[in-house]
Design brief:
By secondary structure, the chain is of the alpha/beta class. The chain has one domain. It has 7 helices and 9 strands, in the order H-H-E-E-E-H-E-H-H-H-E-E-E-E-E-H. Strands 1, 2, 3, 4, 5, 6, 7, 8 and 9 form a 9-stranded mixed sheet that branches. The two termini are 28 Å apart.
Length: 236
């Protein structure tokens, strides 16, 4: 799966985006239309790590397209400001076919070259000169994948949880070639008070709609900031 394959890629270098320079308006002078694609997992993980594996409690909060909406709106807002002459197209197509096609890939060393043909086909379908693709990744020294929350039984601050948006922004040309990739590093993960969220170690409070809504809002707000940072660091 593209989501899982992308998650295996991340290292510190990946989050920093390698050595490629920021994109400039001059670099993009021939661009007229771009597409925005989210491959982020909408089933966001919430994980409690206990003293032993028997005390670990995993759960998931279904976002139902909220992450995709945040990605589309945030990227479009940024491009409307930094590249106002561009037409921005939000890809509403379910990426399932693309993901299913690659479900047998246990790992990839480089996302774009492995999937250049598929990415070029999407660009052609959208009539886009560039694609802005968001994928899940993993942190360097912190447990968790993609957008989610973790907290521990043993912590210096037991009343807080870690909110993370481990994502990678790829900018891909119409031929499926990677131009630049960036991740978010500021406040990622971010320690926030659990008193407002109301999470318990056994995840029982996630059955409360108010708790789920609070967790969902916290995650989408953090994702928005991460996408904005990734766009800035990419030159947009």
């Amino acid at each position: 799966m593209l989501r899982r394959a992308a998650a295996l890629l991340i290292t510190a270098t990946f989050l920093l985006g390698g050595c490629a320079a920021q994109r400039t308006a001059e670099d993009d002078r021939a661009v007229r239309s771009v597409g925005v694609i989210s491959l982020l997992n909408e089933s966001t993980p919430v994980r409690h790590f206990g003293l032993t594996v028997f005390n670990n409690h995993p759960a998931n909060v279904e976002q139902g397209g909220k992450l995709k909406q945040v990605v589309g709106e945030t990227v479009k807002q940024r491009l409307n400001s930094t590249r106002p002459q561009w037409t921005v197209k939000l890809d509403d197509t379910d990426p399932g076919a693309l993901i299913d096609k690659n479900r047998n890939l246990a790992a990839v060393e480089n996302f774009a070259p492995k999937h250049a043909k598929d990415l070029a086909a999407i660009a052609q379908r959208l009539d886009a000169d560039l694609l802005f693709v968001l994928l899940d990744s993993t942190g360097q020294n912190h447990p968790g994948q993609g957008v989610g929350i973790t907290f521990r039984a043993v912590s210096n601050d037991p009343d807080t949880v870690s909110v993370h948006s481990f994502i990678t922004l790829y900018v891909i040309d119409r031929n499926g070639k990677e131009l630049i990739r960036r991740g978010a590093i500021n406040g990622n993960p971010l320690r926030v008070s659990n008193s407002a969220l109301g999470l318990r170690s056994d995840m029982s409070t996630l059955n409360d709609p108010k708790v789920r809504d609070s967790v969902s809002l916290t995650l989408t707000n953090h994702l928005k900031a991460a996408v904005e940072e990734s766009m800035t660091r990419a030159g947009y």
